[in-house]
Design a protein that fits this description.
This protein is mainly α and about 170 residues long. The protein is about 90% helix and about 0% strand. It is found in: Golgi apparatus, trans-Golgi network; Cell membrane; Late endosome; Membrane raft.
């Protein structure tokens, strides 16, 4: 035995190195239990979410999501076609509007030309009427002068004959 004058009591070596409170084995046991509990919780959650993912509601949701995606794609395609059709229709409308404007301008020019031609025709008709009147006057004057000449021509002939007869009488 050791001398009695040491100030501490003799302690066995294996007790000396162990920490006070819980031992390392207990810590490992607690850690293992926690890992197993966490694993069980994770497995339960995976099973729960796997069942939820394969449930009818989830399948219906996925099917509806696919239908919505397809419908959205179809609607986008139809919208694109409608926009293209609208653009083409607007271009045709602009072309038609331009054609209408050109035709309106052309019509205004034609109306103006027609009015000018009608005014010219009216002027020429008036001139023709005036010339016809003058022609009628000249015909009337010619008839009068012809009648006068015929009348005066007959008296000239008669007077010429009388003079001739008188000269012949006087001469013989």
């Amino acid at each position: 035995m050791a001398p009695s004058f040491y100030h501490y009591l003799p302690v066995a070596m294996d007790e000396r190195w162990e920490p006070k409170g819980w031992s390392i084995r207990r810590w490992w046991l607690v850690a293992a239990i926690l890992v197993v509990l966490i694993g069980v919780v994770l497995v339960c959650l995976i099973v729960y979410f796997a069942n939820a993912a394969h449930s009818e509601a989830c399948k219906n949701g996925l099917r509806l999501q696919d239908e919505c995606r397809n419908t959205t794609h179809l609607l986008k395609h139809q919208l694109t076609r409608a926009q293209d059709s609208l653009l083409q229709t607007e271009m045709q409308a602009n072309s038609c509007n331009q054609t209408v404007m050109d035709l309106r301008d052309s019509l205004k020019k034609k109306v103006s030309q027609t009015q000018e031609q009608q005014a010219r025709i009216k002027e020429l008709e008036n001139k023709i009427e005036r010339l016809n009147q003058e022609l009628e006057n000249l015909r009337t004057q010619k008839e009068i002068s012809t009648t006068v000449q015929v009348n005066s021509g007959g008296s000239v002939v008669v007077s010429s004959l009388l003079v001739l007869v008188a000269v012949l009488f006087l001469h013989f």
